[in-house]
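Quick one - first record:
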Amino acid sequence: MTRTVLMKAGPWLSVPPDGYGGIENVVAALVPELRRRGIRVLLATVARSTLPADERLASFRGGQFEVLQRPYNQVSGVAHAHLHAVVRALRDRHDIDLVHDHVEVVGLAVLAAAALAPGTPPVLHTLHWDLRKHANFYSGLDAGPRVRVSTWCWPAAGGTDRGRRCRGRQPGCLLLRGRGAPAR
């Protein structure tokens, strides 16, 4: 039976990115390897992404990175519009076996709520940033039994094992560390 992973990059940059794009570079490394192993990948990204995938899900034609510097009330809907397309796919499709999320805070918050619905696939949330800037969110996170957070810096945010299960040393777990962009 072929497995399907919904790989969720953000709406900020194309995959692979032109130059900087840490998360997008990580996604660009993961997707080909998953496909090589026979796993179907539905890539949630922007339409201008060029990374080969079995299917694409896009809410925006191009990356929305330039809008991040605008006032909050002008940009807060960007990540949510991207996530709404993902949640719609989870509602309408029954062939997705896992959601692998890479979008800071809002991705995990929305997908943890969605994972409460019966029949929704489990969620793996990979963190790519310093958790201390969102310590209030991550320290109180109780994402439920079908959501896992993978990171090596979880204790820096005061996180507990309530939302995190994969430590990278357990059988079946993969912990990937690295720098996605040469400038970093």
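second record:
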Amino acid sequence: MINKMKHLFTRILEELKEHIPFTILASFISVILCFLLIKSNLISSVVSVFYIFHPLHLFFSAIVSTALFYKYRKNIFLSILVGVFISVIIGSISDVFFPYLGSSLFGIPISFHLPAVENPLFILGVSIFGSIIGIAAKKTKFPHFIHVFISVFASLFYIFAYSTNFNLLMLFLILIITTISVIIPCCLGDIILPIFFKEKIKRISHEHEFGGKKLGVSVQ
């Protein structure tokens, strides 16, 4: 048990070492870029842009989560259910809850909008479609850059869409909020959940195999 905890802790630290530097850099560049685009009126509707990146985040998350679960449990319905659940929960935490709570904590005026509640059919449709693709393509990993890129912009555009009166201090605070919003959910989705599923299936398989041997049944 202790060795498993050490292994999990080591995996988390290794992943964070990869996530943090790139996420901070991506967040910094994205904050400046988004701010300039909005101030230059090159983006007519920030809300519309958020509703592009947020579904994209859910879509890719559903592909990976479903494919990962299906790899260890060949149950299509259960895999889709797990993929949809994880993608909606993780995506909502990363793109909505963390940006909203972080902004509120730092005193940045922001309104709360949850796409999963305001537009549930669209959000579920995107996640289900991603889950189906995940089973068909069996892709459990996407380039790190794409994952971080989509997560950063989804979190950023939520803040810019539903908040006002930005200044240099707020931009710095938004950088911190965005970095945390991406790192924690990504760590949860990319490390802890996959390891949990893998170990859970291994434990079930081991118990099944042990039970089969005990009863004199050959388990393939």
